[in-house]
Write a structure and sequence with these properties.
This protein is of the alpha/beta class. The chain has helices at residues 15-27, 29-49, 53-72, 74-88, 98-111, 123-127, 130-136, 146-153, 170-180, 190-207, 233-239, 260-271, 307-311, 327-330, 333-338, 349-360, 362-365, 377-381, 388-400, 419-433, 435-447, 473-482, and strands at 91-95, 116-119, 140-143, 210-213, 217-219, 224-229, 243-249, 253-254, 279-283, 297-303. It folds into two domains: 15-308, NagB/RpiA/CoA transferase-like (Rossmann fold); 424-482, no CATH class. It has 22 helices and ten strands. It has a six-stranded parallel sheet with strand order 1-10-7-4-2-3, with helices on both faces. α20 (419-433) crosses α21.
Length: 483
């Protein structure tokens, strides 16, 4: 693969720039058309997998119960998982934040004098910006998932947690490959483009000293790391290099193997409309003396990065039930119009709006929970029944108010608090709780309605100005009684 210019890689967009990004995205007709078509396709595929609403609700109820049960016992299950993995010969590492996780992985790579790491799909590695950290110490970190490979080649981040390059057309990918992959001619044939990517990656698998993967489910009872994929690249990353490093958030643990199938069945059908994923990998130990393949050394990095903040609150804890299917994004009218990059965070869409504030703090992300119409579609399709709309409302309140008595403050608590808005709401409350003031306001509003400004902040961007009626309802009723 040719050299990549990562200096323009998309990073988190501050809250102050979120509005600008969304405005640019909505103005991009090509982007809107592409996402609309893709989301309609994914919603239709999901619908065909769940023809029986009653059966679906039963499955969702079971999955919700499994995730709630696992989270209720999370501290014990994590200790059990570490103990069992250690018995199996897998080395377990704990990381409180992104810096610690990167340092652990870099340390392992440098111990083996690694120059190349091939990566299976891992949103947690995106979360900690591992690629940048590895390249800063002279180690190439190459994405092997085809979608991830495409966006990495173009110096971008994924725009969807399941389909990273969903925002790109085949023409854009053809041009990218012709420019960035040596010896490649321009072609719009999807099969040929896939073949080009595979040819590059196959050489890298054999040359890499380290393979890295994510984890979909970690089973405490058996010490098993479960990995879901469709391309086979995850299996290559976890078996060909001598060292395999897996990284996952601490919330991915379940107690028993029997808890995995109900979650797996909902994950694949909710994500891409597949009855079952192409590959399901179960990793429990490094290569044994009598085995011919597999890594000689396996590590697991368990990452917190704000998850314990969500865990500490009974309502916010439901955020951690997420199995990363992306269904909430596929059904979100806001995500469909602005795409993933507008959010500027690793996890876009509804799930990103409720999880990013814990990872990055409300000071940096308080605008995200407002990027929702609260239509409820995300909560209705969530396979583990996360009450996303309720959590969005909760986080909006936390961003504009000080911590409530008896509740620990969130990171960045009150970051969007405004003295002007507080004064406006105090005035509103006084107006609507005092009849004399309310009637006086109605009298003034109807008589001086001609003073209504034609531009009313964001309201008039796509709506006509609000203007008081010529007469109040009280006045109209009084006139009716006279006649």
């Amino acid at each position: 693969m040719g050299a990549r210019d990562n200096t323009q890689t998309l990073k988190f967009i501050p809250a102050s720039e979120f509005k600008q990004r969304t405005t640019e995205a909505v103005s991009d007709e090509h982007l809107r058309k592409s996402f609309r078509g893709a989301m309609d396709f994914l919603m239709a595929k999901r619908a065909t997998q769940f023809p029986d609403p009653e059966a679906l609700e039963q499955q969702r109820g079971l999955a919700e119960h499994i995730r709630k049960y696992s989270l209720a016992r999370l501290p014990d299950l994590l200790e059990q998982l570490e103990r069992k993995l250690t018995e199996n010969g897998i080395q377990v590492h704990w990381a409180e934040n992104a810096e610690e996780a990167n340092a652990i992985i870099i340390g392992i790579a440098q111990k083996h004098s690694a120059k190349l790491m091939v990566k299976g799909k891992s949103m947690v590695s995106e979360e900690i910006e591992l690629n940048h950290a590895m390249e800063a110490v002279g180690i190439e970190a190459l994405e092997s998932d085809m979608g991830e490979y495409i966006v990495q080649l173009d110096g971008e981040k994924p725009s969807h947690i399941i389909m990273p390059a969903i925002h790109k057309t085949k023409q854009q990918i053809a041009k990218l490959f012709a420019e960035k992959v040596p010896g490649t001619s321009y072609t719009e044939s999807v099969d040929e483009l896939i073949g080009i990517g595979r040819a590059v990656l196959r050489e890298k698998y054999m040359a890499a000293e380290i393979g890295l993967s994510g984890v979909n489910f970690a089973v405490a009872e058996t010490g098993t790391l479960c990995l879901v994929e469709n391309e086979g690249n995850g299996r290559m990353c976890t078996t060909v290099p001598d060292v395999h490093i897996a990284i996952t958030g601490i919330e991915k643990v379940v107690e028993k193997l029997e808890h995995v199938p109900p979650l797996l069945g909902l994950l694949t059908r909710s994500a891409t409309g597949q009855a079952l994923t192409t590959y399901f990998n179960m990793i429990s130990r490094p290569r044994q003396p009598d085995e011919k393949d597999g890594p000689k050394e396996v590590h697991l990095v368990l990452l917190d990065n704000g998850r314990t903040q969500a865990y500490g609150d009974e309502q916010l804890r439901t955020t951690l039930q997420c199995i990363r299917c992306g269904a909430c994004m596929n059904h979100c009218p806001v995500y469909t119009r602005i795409g993933g990059h507008a959010y500027g965070t690793t996890y876009p869409g509804p799930i990103g709006e409720i999880i990013s504030p814990h990872m990055m703090g409300l000071a940096a992300t308080h605008a995200l929970p407002t990027a929702s119409s609260l239509c409820g579609a995300c909560g209705e399709v969530c396979p583990v029944k996360i009450p996303i709309p309720d959590l969005l409302i909760r986080l909006r309140g936390e961003a504009t108010h000080d911590a409530r008595p008896g509740h620990a403050p969130l990171l960045g608590q009150g970051a969007a608090k405004s003295s002007l808005m507080d004064a406006i709401w105090v005035g509103w409350a006084a107006l609507y709780t005092r009849p004399v003031l309310y009637r006086a306001f109605g009298w003034l509003a109807t008589r001086f309605r001609f003073l209504t400004p034609p531009m009313q902040s964001g309201w008039t961007v796509s709506r006509t100005p609000l203007k008081p009626a010529a007469k109040t309802l009280r006045d109209l009723l009084a006139e009716r009684q006279k006649h």
